[in-house]
Amino acid sequence: MSGPTELELAGQVIELVRRLGGPTTQAEAVVTRADLALTRFANSAIHQNVAESTVGVRLRLHVDGRTAAGSGSVVTADGLRALVERTLTAARLCPPDPGWPGLAPPAPTPDAPGVDEATAYAEPGQRADRVGAFVAAAGGLTTAGYCRTAHRSSAFANSAGHTAQGRSAEAAMDGIARRDGADGVARSYADRLSDLDGAELGAQAAAKAQAAVDPVELPPGRYEVVFEPAAVADLLQNLSWYGFNGKRYAERQSFAEPGTAQFDSTVTLVDDPLGSSGLPFDAEGTGRRALTLVEAGTTRAVTHDRRTAAEAGAESTGHATAGAATWGPMPRNLRLSGAAAGPASPVGRSTTGTAAGAVVDADTAALVAGVRRGLLVSDLWYTRVLDPKSLVVTGLTRNGVWLIEDGTVVRAVRDLRFTESYPRALGPGAVLGLGAREVRQPDRVDGVWWAAPSLRLASWHFTGGASG
């Protein structure tokens, strides 16, 4: 790599702040080089392959009791100077910031897993191979989706003398197969592109699409449900953003009550940023580490950046992000684990018509086998929070819903709208089973994932058809 490193650029920014803003100005800078690549397919053919390589600089400074942030992508001497000058100007126009928590002091950066170089520098043909395998495994059904890879190299420096640096890489695939208007979905997130099996994902999506044809209407009401990992990921995302967010907790907009048994005793939730190839520090330079949010049903913690930690009399948990002053710090790599569901039943045990392929893994089969009457749900989408405090969410099912009777998937069901409190649905006594295998699901935001097993819940409130 030619030119200055990320750490050298971050140091140059801090030196410019000292020269232009004076020795009392507090500043922190993050420099990130990102290589992002995306291969999209539709109508069973690749229609777009895009890649971008960027360098981004983010500066936050505190001067004369006021705080401002700025960013830029021009890393020449003139570009960095312009960034510092306009951020200093913005700070003078900002209102006083009495909640400024100060800068992170010098501290060691935690060790992070190594980066898979083959993923970091993946070629378009390697992504295309996985797309081709997905399409072929769908057996002639119409397919669409993407395969993506990302590599980041990032460095942090502040005027208190703290520095940190690290790298991350990731790969993800998300695809659907369609038959007669019925869709099946399969998704996966991995640290190594080689761990993404396009053929396996394509076969799963196709089996679910075949099983989803000719759906019937079901009346609204409360049903026992088995959620597949893609649906569970939505639960984790909303619990993350609205429940374990330190800013929302301080503002009393969160359901979280640390020390209280708010969840079923089978539920443990851990934010695990170093459980994959992630950056070992946050936007304030604080080291990232695993944080147990729920332990055997009892809420233990919420996430903090330096600002919310200072307000709460706590320490930062390493969850600062750009924009956290507005949105708050949140867990972004949440892992749900618990007791295994028990011995697995044979995969696809249903033999009833087109529903035979609805169950595509042993964990889900084990959970389905215990349901007398309920629903198997592949995916949730368009979810919107109605009440942040109780985390009542409304949304829709998609990509396959099936009726379960006496432990057998019997037929497809039309999509349904639901309105449900996520903490209530996961509350004491409400979780009837968890799969043993966590499947990491990709988020729309790069570097964010949700590790989700299949999940069996005693009750979920469906309020009507998807068009209602």
Distance between the termini: 56 Å
Integer average pLDDT: 93
Question: What is the strand tally?
Answer: 19
With strands numbered from the N-terminus, the spatial order across the biggest sheet is 3-2-1-4-5-6
Uncertain runs are 339-354
Reading the helices and strands in chain order gives HEEEHHHEEEHEHHEEEHHEHEEEEHEEEE
Our estimate of the beta-strand percent is: 35-45%
CA radius of gyration is 24 Å
| Class derived from helix and strand content | alpha+beta
Helix content: 10-25%
Helix segment count? 11
3D shape: globular
Main attributes of the structure:
468 residues; alpha+beta; six-stranded antiparallel beta sheet; 23% helix
Give a brief description.
The chain is an alpha+beta fold and 468 residues long. Helices cover 23% and strands 37% of the residues.
Descriptive report:
There is one protein chain. The chain has 468 residues and is α+β, with helices and mostly antiparallel strands. The protein is 23% helix and 37% strand. It is built from eleven helices and 19 strands. The chain has helices spanning 6-21, 77-93, 117-120, 124-137, 198-211, 229-243, 246-250, 306-312, 324-327, 362-368, 422-425; strands spanning 26-42, 45-63, 66-72, 142-158, 163-179, 182-190, 221-227, 268-271, 291-295, 298-299, 333-337, 373-387, 392-405, 408-412, 416-421, 431-434, 439-442, 449-452, 455-465. The strands form three sheets. A six-stranded antiparallel β-sheet has the order 3-2-1-4-5-6. Helix 1 (6-21) crosses helix 2 and helix 4 (124-137) packs parallel to helix 5. The protein is globular and about 70 Å long. 52% of the residues are buried. The model is unreliable at 339-354 (pLDDT under 50).
